[in-house]
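Service request form, structural biology core

Requester: graduate student, group of Dr. S.
Request type: structure prediction, single chain
Budget code: on file
Notes: please return the result as structure tokens.

Sequence provided:
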Amino acid sequence: MDKIYGYARCSTNETKQNIDRQGRELSKCGVPAENIYWEFDHGTNDDRIELKRLMDVVESGDTIVTTEVSRLARSTQKLCEIIKIIQDKQLKLVICNSITFDCRPGHDTDVMTKGMIQMWGVFSELEGEIIRQRIKSSMANAKAKGKKIGHPATTKESIPDTFYKKYPLYKNGSINVTDLARLCKCSRTTVYKYIKIIEEA
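Core staff response, request fulfilled:
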């Protein structure tokens, strides 16, 4: 039976509310909660673990749903690679409340839709570059004014309760770092940081 999967991603510097909003939108589009893949990584990273897991598990006839093209990729090259996988594996790609690219058996591939998705990829890449330049400029201005840059240091007390609840499962070998990151909805980098803080305390 054909299945429907969702992909939610936010960068490590985005708020948790952002990815929670994506989850709600995916649910409204009919994606079962257990089929949503949560990623905390930059869209320019070519080695995103959850996206790879999703692409490995989908089969011909399945559907992948995401909220925006930029959630899939922040570079045109990476987006084109994903589109090729969609075509090769005969999948259906749905951008919530926007556009559908259907390559399932028995459906004609819409060249115009493919072109539209790729065009959005160009704009997404441009937007990402503008954001990076804006951040660099803001940091330079703050540094020039003598302001402290960066997030407050993470302490044992500031680690979320959710992590402490799932941490014993990692310690007894029931789950690995990737599982722990997915359960706590944070990046693997953050998980390693939390583990180091807890174990060195």
